[in-house]
Amino acid sequence: MRKILLTLTAGLTALPALAQTAPAAPAAPGFDAAAALARIDATIDKQYPHLDALYKDLHAHPEVGFQEVRTAAILAAEMRKLGFTVTEKVGKTGIVAILKNGEGPTLLVRAEMDALPMEEKTGLPYASRAQQTVDGKLSFVDHSCGHDSHMAWWVGAAAALAAMKDQWHGTLMFIGQPSEETVSGAKAMIADGLFTRWPKPDFGFAAHVAPMPVGTVMVKDGVVSSASDAIDITFNGVGAHGSMPDKSIDPVMMGSRFVTDVQSIISREKDPKAFGVVTVGAFTAGTVNNIIPDHADLKLTLRSHDDATRKLLVEGVERTARAVAAMAHAPEPTITQPTGTNAVHNDAALSARSAAMLKTVFGKDVQFVPASESGGTASEDYSVFIDEGVPSVFFAIGGYDPATIARYKAEGKPLPVNHSPYFAPVPEPTIKRGAQTLALSAMMVLGNGAGAK
Ligand SMILES: [Zn+2]
Ligand SMILES: [Zn+2]
């Protein structure tokens, strides 16, 4: 189930930091973003001590994908308190929280609930020492991707919208998604009837914390993240004594040849202008010096932005593995593809409209990155909801104090990115900006006078 956990690279750090002026798309008629923000802030400011405690509790008690039982129960209770109708165990550990408020569009707002199997090293007073069993092994668990911030701002946005029901109409569908890091939780929720047991949303919003200055909201038109495909390969050889290589078919030799040859897909077959990565993240074979083992296990992650490159990488990796085995007179390799997800594509009209609206209240903190710029290299299974036909915007929200960014720069050290054991967003401004962004975007599509577009 959890085959590619650590192969997912850091968050949205590779997004181009190119600030552009958003196209002057008008905000919805009748929607006054400044007035809405004043109402939203009134709730969020009042709620903040609670959101802070919630965040620190979730941070100290992280749970890995499909084991988010405590987390889901806490979120379900929070949403029930706000008046939402909550269904639990959707897609194993996911939750669906619905708030109906008259006729109008249905809006999806998604947060991910899972953490990563790694040890936190931030030294924060609320740092995690939690452990869980992952693939049969006890592992430390850490919210090092920042999904704890997402859950806190998701509850904050829900609280703000619940407190201003006189200002909007429609249906809120707030979902707590399991297991994003294995890019399998969104699929699990869809397979469990997310868009058949409940109405398919007309719009969707989600946001990810990123190592940018707090206050920053990045809106990327078009491709936001990469497609991600995990591939597991076992080279099946013939084991023998270490002194008798002629009696073996050596899988270590096959694996080694494969690791270098497979990169020729990137350097010789892929369009040099197209983004594509092939990484062998794990290579395990053998036990001791004097035994040639009978198999070698490799785990790969493939990343791309467009369909043609995605197909080329998957086909090229499989072809190279089979060719390497044939060259060694070995049996066919065993090739499986445990998970895969498409790139996240933000909706063009909704991205432009959101960026223009947010700029009216957040000014230069809003960065609009046009579709012509490359997306990030990390992946996100929010793409599953978009591919199901929910036009969406996936925002990136800054999580670092500018002084921290400056200090790392002055010391010549790389800033800890998502998935680093030192990743540590500043809670209050991060959570508030995320909650404001999601609540304002919800008001933009559901607010009185906005109408269903
Ligand atoms: Zn992550
Ligand atoms: Zn993440």
What does this structure look like?
This protein is α+β, with helices and mostly antiparallel strands. It folds into 2 domains: 326 residues, Zn peptidases (Aminopeptidase); 114 residues, Alpha-Beta Plaits (2-Layer Sandwich), CATH 3.30.70. The protein has 11 helices and 19 strands. It has an 8-stranded mixed sheet, sandwiched between helices. Strands 10, 12, 14, 15 and 16 form a 5-stranded antiparallel sheet that branches. A hairpin with a 2-residue loop joins strand 4 and strand 5. Helix 3 crosses helix 11. The chain is elongated. It starts with 32 loop residues before the first helix and ends in a 7-residue tail after the last helix. The N terminus is likely disordered. The structure holds zinc ion (ZN) (2 copies). The site of one zinc ion has 5 residues, from loops.
